[in-house]
Hints:
By secondary structure, the chain is an alpha+beta fold. It contains 31 helices and eight strands.
Amino acid sequence: MSSLITDLAYILVVASIVTIIFKRLRQPLVLGYIVAGFLAGPHMPYTPSVSSMEGIEEWSQLGVVFLMFTLGLEFSFKKILKMGMQPILTAVMVMCCMIGIGGMIALLFGWSSMDRLFLGGMLSMSSTTIIYKAFDDLGLRSKRFASGVISVLIIEDILGILLMVMLSALAVSRTFQGLELMKSLMQLGFFLLLWFLVGIYLLPLLLRKAKKYINSETLLVVSVGLCFLMAVIATKVGYSPAFGAFMMGSILAETLEAENIEKGVGSLRDLFGAVFFVSVGMMVEPSVLSEYWLPILVLTLAVVLGQMFFGSLSFFATSGNVQTAVRSGFSMVQIGEFAFIIAALGQELGVTSKFLYPVVVSVSIITTFLTPYIIKLSPKAANRIEKSMSNELQSLFNRGKSISVSRRNERLRLSPALAWRKLFKAILVQTIAYLTISVALALFSFATILPLCQHIIGEKYGYIVGLVITLLLLSPCIRPIIIKKNHSREVKYLISSGKMNALLVRLVLFAKVLLGFVIIYNVVSFVAPLWWFWKVLISLAALLLMVVSRLVKYTSIRMERTFKQNLRLRDQQAALSYGRKLRGRDLQIARVKIPAHSKWGGHTLAQLHFGRTDRVHIAAILRAGHRINIPGGSHRIYPGDILEVVAGVEAIEALRQRSEQEVLPLQERNKEKHNLSIISVKLGESSPLIGKTLQDVDFRLRYHCMVVGVENEEGHLGTIQAKRQFQENDIVWVVGEEADLSMLSMVI
């Protein structure tokens, strides 16, 4: 048998045993995986070890890919826009502070410049997995501050992807030139936007077309195939496969099949994610830990105290609420999976020291263990800090916020300024989007279509045909750059609001036309080696044809409508369901699952009267894929049902706890009276059933039993008709619970 299979079997067995123990101890599974990796690793002399670390590293790479893919499935570009600037500013402030702390500590210990950079990146990101698990274990998932923490974690994950790309670029160049860094960021932005635009346009369209051919198995194969395809493309372009997997996940997150894909890939993520965390534990070397115990201690204190202080301060700066800020900051006092991924990236590129990986893993283990206890301490700390703050300080902060809000409202009341802002925003968004697609199409045409035309019809005519095809491909993208928003309400208002505004608007419209001309001119210059005059003439003619052509106009409109429809499709589908958070007060719709042995099973909503006792409203009942929207009081609920309830977060949490408590006791579930049995009863001459029919007796209502057949004197067993009269010596076969059958046998 291959050593790869043997090693995989061994680490999974060890991981299963250790994680069961950690589950029993109510510790995070991630911590159990790391400990299992240490026990199965080459640095533990008292237990068997894997034979090939290279094979385990290959498996762990799959874990990173699946982790980032599922992270992308949970992320949506629209979510960032809906969150506003508050979580973005909070995440940026926290990350910048922690990067600075990590760099300073590494500098104090005399570590290299690359170690300082990568260490700062590792310490800057809290663990999404660990915090999710801690909130679930402590029953805080539905709290308002928890949603703010989760929003910041999403932003941190996105910024972590960008940080990985920047660190990769710096590691390869080994220089800190601002121009090179800016070039790398622009290249990253180009690919991000291109993949997003093309993916949102094509993937939902293809999935809808092939919907009738796709089942759950096929959907899993297709989604994983797309994940690996994007990982390969990202590697070819110069980025990590994890980045490509994340991008494909975020694109598929906008499709209607996102939830089904997430469910299908969940098992693969759990399996290979476990292998990844086990491989992390294998990197822990006791000798390194004993040698670097002081940096481990210092870094642990830096993470805990730094996140407690700077995290709380950042949340307070953006929210202004002490309770929310302190509880949020105290929740982020750990590092986790992203720190491991960044550490693995440094090891893979060969730019970080070997001791850095086990040091960071040790810090993660300690901070993960401390996280639940620090979260429990956060309410007391918040109360103490709130009491110690002077009233003057709080009023000063609130006054500063009100001043900024009033100034913003004053700016919004200025109609010309508001019109300019809307116009520039619309023009900037559409120009960047269409320009990105135009550049990508031009590069694709130069690399494939133009050489193919030259090969088929010769070099001379190949240039002409290639140029025509390229311009046709670009025309639906160039025309919107020139035409869109030229007759918008903002443009008409600004032209009529004064000579200066009218002049500036015309300059902006001319700049748009000039940009379109420049794009066409560069394409013509690349394809056709002509005198500049002919290039200008051809470019102007192509520009005019694009503007006046109805076919180009309708193609462009249809493409934009399809893109917007695909982008809004999941939101429109979600709007039809009730599983979304309501705006306004602290009111939301959440799901509560009825346990398997719930006492509520079989009762109607009117009997349970949730509205009076629990202050919740039942919006829907989900049962085996079937949805009952706005159920009435006569509807019954059964074990395994999922209730969608509308209430405040406290009422929802109270209902969830009550549903878990009001279950049948174990001894009552296993009582023998609930076991069904079958008996046969011979009717004697004195039996009260003689001369009566099955319909007359009604066994179900009177005896809680069911007659399944009658055996005659000859031993033939047959079904009994409802109007057949019972006769002497009939042997009646009856099914029911044992207590009811005993009572029946005495009666008849």
